[in-house]
Amino acid sequence: MQSSLRDFLEREMRAGRLMGADPDEAAAEFRAMTVTRTQLRMLAGLFDATEISDASKDARTAADRFLQLYGCGRVEA
Fold first, then answer.
1. In sequence order, what E strands does the chain have?
2. Residues near 47 by Cβ (< 8 Å), separated by ≥ 6?
3. Are 64 and 74 spatial neighbours (Cβ–Cβ below 8 Å)?
4. Residues 21, 9, 25, CA angle at the centre, nearest 5°?
5. d(Cα 34, Cα 22) in Å, to the nearest integer?
6. What are phi and psi of 54, to 5 degrees?
7. How far apart are CA 67 and CA 77, in angstroms?
8. How far apart are the C-alpha atoms of 24 and 77, rounded to whole Å?
9. Which pLDDT band holds residue 7 (cuts at 50, 70, 90)?
């Protein structure tokens, strides 16, 4: 996933749709925003299944924050 995300981000940066100097760094940041927190909590035994919320909403929130960080926030209709 990391390399395909990196490739996508590099294409978007070259096209001027995202701002950033390093696609590898951007891909790592996105992964951290979406996956790492839950993984760490699960490994530490701190994850409670009752905390699971709407995954689509969580993913959208992470994507919106990522796009704002890299200068391309999503416009609400």
1. none
2. 38, 41
3. yes
4. 50
5. 19
6. -65, 110
7. 16
8. 31
9. very high
Q: What is the pLDDT of residues 23-73, one digit of tens each?
A: 898 888 888 888 877 777 778 887 777 766 666 777 788 888 888 888 765
Do you know the residue count of the chain?
77
Residue in the structure block whose two tokens are 């979406």: 34
Measure Cα distances from 34 to 11, 15, 16, 18, 77 in Å.
21, 24, 24, 18, 24
Burial (CB count <10 Å: 0-12, 13-18, 19+), residue 44: exposed
- For the chain, report the end-to-end CA distance as a whole number of angstroms: 30
Contacts of 9 (CB under 8 A, 6+ apart): 18, 20, 23, 26, 27, 30
pTM: 0.64
Question: What are 47's two structure tokens?
Answer: 């994850």
